[in-house]
Amino acid sequence: MPVVRDLRVLLRLRNFRKLLAVRLLSQAADGVYQVALATYVVFSPEKQTSPTAIASAMAVLLLPYSAIGPFAGVLLDRWRRRQVFLYGNLLRAVLACGTGVLIVAQVPDWLFYASALSVTAVNRFVLAGLSASLPRVVGRHQLVTANALSPTAGTLAAAAGGGLAVLVRLLAADSNAVVVLLGAVLYLCAALASLRLAVSLLGPDRDPEPRYPSVAEGVALTLRGMGAGLRHLGERREAAQALVAMALMRFCYGALTVMLLMLCRYAWSERESDGLALLGLAVGVSAAGFFAAAAVTPWMVGRLGTRGWITACAGCSAVLVPALGLFFAPGPMLAAAFVLGLATQGAKIATDTEVQSRIDDGFRGRVFSVYDVLFNVAFVSAAAAAALILPADGKSGTLIVCVAVVYASIAVGLARHGRRFT
Fold this sequence. Notes:
The chain has helices at residues 2-11, 14-42, 51-66, 68-76, 81-105, 109-133, 143-171, 176-194, 215-234, 237-267, 272-325, 330-358, 361-389, 397-416.
């Protein structure tokens, strides 16, 4: 198969394998840490979870550090990206240990969220840096396949980490702190793996500043740098359209995620452990969809182009989400999770490739940081919208229909405007 052959070619590239190892360990740690937070907020017996509570938690964790995204982009285009991976993962290991201590101490929620925010804030630098570094270790003609393998493998690693966290949580009651410490160990492993990469390998091209900027200098750099980055993105219409489409698909995914959490917590189970097991199964099925996307996306992009493949992903979701989701039963909803995993990850691979191939290296950090901010704002906005619509048990035909309309609008908009992406 061409896909298998291309993957073998990529895996022969030593520096690609090293960067992939950093991604896998880092995102596995993310999966462990995120599931620990989710189980603490949603599935703790002492907490009465509602859609509004989930939306509030997402807003606390995602919106504040979305403001860090532009700073991350400017600094990623000035700092050595390999050093970002090293020190960023070391810092997250220390901060995650702090979160574990706070869970054991049963501190007020605001202090717990502040600790979680400190870990996820550093995540912006690491994830944006991983995407911006990929063109430095593969050739331009290999980017589609590299984007099919690398981010998808990272997502699968996050899902595997999440599954491990669920298993630990099920086997040991009140083990949220242990799960968080497991994430800290994986962050430490990711930092050690980054030492295998040469300091100058991942760029950026221009020499870094001899010292870190002050806070005032950082604000000024952000304003000037983001202005230049947005102008650069505005001149690449195809990349900008792909980013907008992906943000809207992320909105749909976020709304359905809140629905799934409520269904697992209240509609499909009477005990927290049963709901958590169902959630773990849904994560695994969605991960299978990510894997399928990695296998078929290079082939589909080669025939449809990136725009055509994103259009197809959105169109299929518009049809299959209501067809499967309106049953509000575990079986059809798990099938929908697979479809959404495939469609969302397939569209993301195409979008990553479009941005990487059209954005100059000196601007990639800033543009991928904008990408991250759009992702987070879309997800939190979706959670807020879901909180307004969802009943306590999570069953809402209105939400599913609205999500299907958004998917259909994405497909129609991409099909009617612009030329085929390459």
